[in-house]
C-alpha cells in the first residue's frame, strides 16, 4: 500500500464523508453493493443521524415501495399506528424484517416527538410497487387518484367503468407474466384504455394545480401526485411485461429506474424548502454510469435512477458507492480494487475517488465475487463517484 493511497482514505464518519461533497447538495445517494447485509443499512443510519443533526437533512428515501412507505411515514411523522405495524406494512422486498430499518423508524419517531410539523423527518420509498415476481395491479393508485379528482372536478369516467376495465387484480399480479409475456394483460384493449385514462387524470391534476393546492391540504395533493406517477408507471411496466421482443427485460429495468428517478425528483422538489434528502438503494440504482448485468445468458443495460437524476440536478446530486472486502471465505484477490482497499488500516473507510487513481501503483482488475448478489466496484468508473465507503469485513 502506498502512502498516497492511505492519504486518500479516512476512517468513516459523517464528517469525513460530507467533507468530500458540495455544500449545495439537494440529494445525496448512498449505495449498497448487495441487499440483506445489515452492515450497510446500519452505516446508513449512522450517516443519516449525522446529516440530520449537523447538515440540515430532513428526509430519507430508500429502495422500497413508494406506496407502502406512506404507512412508515405516517408512523414516524405523526405516530400513527405502532412500530410493529409500520415494519409490517411500510416496506417491500422483505426489508421490513431488517433490524436496521426498525431502528431507523424508531429513531426517526423519537426525533420527531414534540417537534412542529415543518421540522419533522419524513420517510419515503422510491421504488414502484414492483417485486421480482411481478408488478402490482394499478387499481390502488388509479382509483385513489380518480377519487381525489372526482371529489373536486367533473370527470368523464365513472368509478364503475374503471372497475370494469381493471377487472380482478390477479390478472395483473400473476407471477407467470414476469417470464412469459403471453401471461401479461398489459397490452389488452382494457389496459390500453386505462393508460389513456391515467394519462388524462395526471394531466388534469397538473392543469388544476392552482385550484387543488388552494382548496386541499398540501399532503393530499402530494399523495395524489404520487398516485398519478405510480398508476402511469405501473401501466407502462405491465405493457412492457407483455412485450415478446429480446429487449423486454432491458425495458423493464429501465422503466423501474425511471419510476425511481421520477419519485426522487418529486421528493427533492417537495423537500426543497426543508433541506436535502438522503437516498439509500443498491449502487446500481444510484450510479451515474449505465448499469449492466447478465440475465438469461445475455447482457442487459439500462440507465439508472441516479444517472437520470444526475442529468436533472447536476452538481446538486452526489453519489457515494459502498463496497466490502472479505465476507466469510469470499476474500478479494489482492489485484482487485477491493483487495487493495482491504490493506487500509480502518474497518470502515471513506475514500476520495479523485485522489484514489493517482495513488494506485497499478490498474486494478474487476473483482469476481463468490456471491453473485454482490456487484463489485468497477475500477474504470471510480472517477464518476463522489466518495467510496469501504467496509473491510462483514
From TrEMBL:
Class of this enzyme: hydrolase
Key words, A-Z: Hydrolase
Coiled-coil intervals, chain numbering: none
Pfam families, per database record: Erythro_esteras (PF05139)
Bilayer-spanning residue ranges: none
GO MF annotation, one: hydrolase activity
EC numbers on record: 3.1.1.-
Taxonomic lineage from the root: Bacteria, Bacillati, Actinomycetota, Actinomycetes, Kitasatosporales
Organism: Streptomyces amakusaensis
PANTHER family found in the cross-reference section: ESTERASE, PUTATIVE (AFU_ORTHOLOGUE AFUA_1G05850)-RELATED
Name of the protein this chain belongs to: Erythromycin esterase family protein
Amino acid at each position: 500500500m502506498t502512502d498516497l493511497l492511505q492519504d486518500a482514505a479516512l476512517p468513516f464518519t459523517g464528517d469525513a464523508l460530507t467533507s468530500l461533497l458540495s455544500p449545495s447538495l439537494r440529494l445525496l445517494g448512498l449505495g449498497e453493493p448487495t441487499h440483506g447485509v445489515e452492515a450497510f443499512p446500519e452505516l446508513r443510519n449512522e450517516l443519516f443521524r449525522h446529516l440530520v443533526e449537523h447538515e440540515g437533512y430532513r428526509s430519507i428515501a430508500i429502495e422500497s415501495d413508494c406506496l407502502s412507505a406512506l404507512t412508515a411515514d405516517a408512523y414516524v411523522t405523526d405516530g400513527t399506528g405502532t412500530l410493529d405495524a409500520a415494519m409490517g406494512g411500510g416496506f417491500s422486498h422483505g426489508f421490513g424484517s431488517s433490524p436496521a430499518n426498525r431502528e431507523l423508524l424508531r429513531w426517526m419517531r423519537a426525533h420527531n416527538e414534540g417537534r412542529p410539523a415543518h421540522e419533522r423527518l419524513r420517510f419515503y420509498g422510491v421504488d414502484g410497487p414492483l417485486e421480482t415476481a411481478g408488478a402490482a395491479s394499478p387499481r390502488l393508485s388509479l382509483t385513489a387518484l380518480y377519487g381525489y379528482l372526482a371529489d373536486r372536478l367533473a370527470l368523464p369516467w365513472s368509478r364503475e367503468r374503471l372497475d370494469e376495465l381493471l377487472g380482478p387484480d390477479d390478472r395483473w399480479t400473476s407471477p407467470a407474466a414476469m417470464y412469459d409475456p403471453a401471461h401479461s394483460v398489459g397490452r389488452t384493449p382494457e389496459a390500453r384504455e386505462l393508460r389513456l385514462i391515467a394519462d388524462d387524470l395526471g394531466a388534469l391534476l397538473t392543469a388544476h394545480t392552482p385550484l387543488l393546492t388552494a382548496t386541499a391540504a398540501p399532503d393530499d395533493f402530494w399523495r395524489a401526485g404520487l398516485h398519478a406517477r405510480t398508476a402511469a408507471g405501473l401501466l407502462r411496466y405491465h405493457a412492457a411485461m407483455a412485450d415478446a421482443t429480446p429487449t423486454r427485460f432491458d425495458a423493464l429495468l429501465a422503466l423501474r429506474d425511471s419510476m425511481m428517478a421520477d419519485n426522487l425528483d418529486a421528493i427533492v422538489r417537495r423537500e426543497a424548502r426543508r433541506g436535502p434528502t438522503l437516498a439509500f438503494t443498491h449502487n446500481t440504482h444510484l450510479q451515474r454510469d449505465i448499469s449492466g448485468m447478465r440475465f438469461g445468458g445475455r447482457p442487459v443495460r439500462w440507465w439508472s435512477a441516479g444517472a437520470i437524476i444526475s442529468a436533472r440536478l447536476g452538481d446538486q446530486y452526489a453519489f457515494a458507492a459502498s463496497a466490502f472486502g472479505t465476507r466469510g471465505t469470499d476474500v478479494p484477490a489482492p489485484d482487485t480494487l477491493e483487495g487493495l482497499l482491504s490493506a487500509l488500516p480502518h474497518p470502515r473507510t471513506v475514500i476520495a475517488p479523485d485522489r484514489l487513481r493517482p495513488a494506485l501503483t497499478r490498474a486494478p482488475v474487476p473483482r469476481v465475487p463468490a456471491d453473485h448478489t454482490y456487484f463489485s466496484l468497477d475500477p474504470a468508473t471510480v472517477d464518476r463517484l463522489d466518495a467510496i465507503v469501504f467496509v473491510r469485513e462483514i
